[in-house]
Amino acid sequence: MHKLLRLARLCLAILVLAAIGQQLALHAAHHFSFANFFSYFTVLSNLFAALVLLVSACTPAQREHPWLSLLRYLSAVQMAIVGLVFALLLRHLDVGLMQAWINTVLHYLMPVAVVLDWLLAPAPSPLARKTLGKSLVLPALYLVYTVLRGQQTGWYPYPFLNPANVGGAAGVALYAAGIALCFVLVGGLLLWAAKGRRPVAPA
């Protein structure tokens, strides 16, 4: 069982890296901004997830260190939000040059797979409650970066972060607060769901 899990992690990491690589190549072919490409939370979260999956694939469950458990948890929370926000706010928008299979991998497959990975093979030791607060750090930094960069360039990766689309800064703040609440709820749920569970036993 454990060997199959590590193989699945490796395959998922390779798949998502291939998807992002293909999408980046499409952007480059059309002379789009690389900075804009790497300003999407979806891209950054999937890259983070791929890195965590690669490390996890090389680490036996019984040797998983607390720092890796933390990274796996952060990745699960972020990918869950990627899936939820896309389904609720972005699913009906034009994804532009993004090919259908890439869209499926980044917005559907990876969110489900990463969350399942956390639930089926939770941390060997329960994470502290304060870990929930840590799950908000990266999204908060991303929000600050996106707002400041958007003010300078006039470009925003998502329509709900563009003041012109949501009635000004108050609208952006409202959406940000709603998504932050989702992070808290999802993060708390994933901590609770994994509490007391034991990691997958090695085959």
What would you say this structure looks like, in words?
The protein has 203 residues and is mainly α. The chain has helices at 2-29, 34-37, 41-57, 66-90, 100-120, 131-134, 137-153, 169-194. Helix 1 (2-29) runs antiparallel to helix 5 (100-120), helix 3 (41-57) packs across helix 5 and helix 4 (66-90) crosses helix 5 (100-120). The mean pLDDT is 92.
> How is the biggest beta sheet arranged?
none
Report the order of strands and helices.
HHHHHHHH
How widely separated are the two ends? 5 Å
Q: How many DSSP-defined strands?
A: 0
- The low-pLDDT segments are none
Helix content percent band: 55-70%
Radius of gyration: 17 Å
**pLDDT average, as an integer?**
92
Kindly estimate the percentage of residues that lie in beta strands according to DSSP: under 5%
- Count of DSSP-assigned helices: 8
Shape: globular
What are the main properties of this structure?
203 residues; mainly alpha; 8 helices
